[in-house]
Amino acid sequence: MRRALFAYLFTPVLATTAAAADGTLTQFLSATKVDGEARAYFFTRSYSSGTTADADAFSLAALLNVRSAEFAHGFSIGASFFTAHALGTQDLDARRVDVTLMGHVNSINALGQAYLQYRASGVLVRIGDQLLDTPWAGRSDARVLPAGYEAAYAEWAPLTSVKFSVLRILEYKGRTAGDYFRDNNYYPPTYEGDSNYGGTSNLPMRASSASGAVAGGVTYTTGGLKGTAWFYDFYQFGRLAYVDGQLTLPSLGGVAPFIGVQAVQEWGSQNMFARTGTRFFGQPGSAVDSRAYGAIVGTKQGGVTVSFAYDKLESRGGGALGGGVLISPYTAGYATDPLYTTSMIRGLVELGPGSAWRAKASWSTLGSQLELVAAFARYNTEFNGGDTQTYFEAKYSPHGFLKGLSLRDRLEVGKGRVNPGAQAFVYNRVQLAYAF
Asked: Which of 16, 98, 166, 420 could connect to 57 by a Cys-Cys bridge, CB 3.0–4.6 Å?
């Protein structure tokens, strides 16, 4: 309601101001940008246990974005409307619905973005409901609707190779929610009227609401080198420091090797899990206390990329929550964290302390219209044992008059005791999209 009222009252005022400052209203409107994407997704979850019902879900969705022309020397306003509809296709048996696509409802309508932006001289400031692209708080855009944040975000690029970023998150909108709430992926999916399905949902309903997060980062890019460092204070959940560096070496005989390293350290004794007596993997412990490190090596030759990655997650000492679980409020359960070995279904954030490796090969052909991907990952974790994820993907994005259209099929087979009945879990995601 408050966002709709804001848009209704202030958009005409801003438009009039822009017209007076920078030209006619017609010129202002002609410079306003409108774009979006139409999506049709069909997901199926197949279990071999015999005790868990197979599930599926279909959704037809649209994302419409509007950003005004700049006025007053760098200001603009933006808004996005998200809508998703199951069209009455959901099974009457709730157990047979893949609620991670759009929950249990038949439709979702959301004012996904509503922000004021300023951009000038290498500075960008955005305040309001928005999509983010930071390593541990991003849009997690693997469903029909992306995750959003009520936040203040700013970045400064004093050089073309250097960018500084600061962020303050107040509220969060999960991928199946129609509004913003003071929670995250650890809260139950119906917490205070929210409908955020697909997270880990560890916390009880009695947990107090979340206070968001503050973060800051720096990115350096030059030639084949890209490095980034971020600090996050997830209020009431933990503090996280993250660094990642990747280097692509000069091509030799048409082959370009690359290498990357990453490290994460997380700590915090005053957290929501300790207050509510919440355990991970049935393990005692109260302090957020973990570290992870990893590496990736690979080569690129023409349209073929081959890589091998390794990550290790461990506790720094006794009394660690979940034996050293990595707390990630905005990616947990979504499997959208930046660890090299995270698969489509899950990664070390979901499985807990241990080690993982992942081999991946991709082939881009037909003038980059067709991309084929195959990957295999193995996780050896302290509390969930061995787990494997075998992944295949085919994506077709035609050129010419069909530019903007994409057809994508993602299939992953998970095996291990973390699945129902310790049997295989097959997840297939068919995704049709058209960007305009």
From this structure: 98
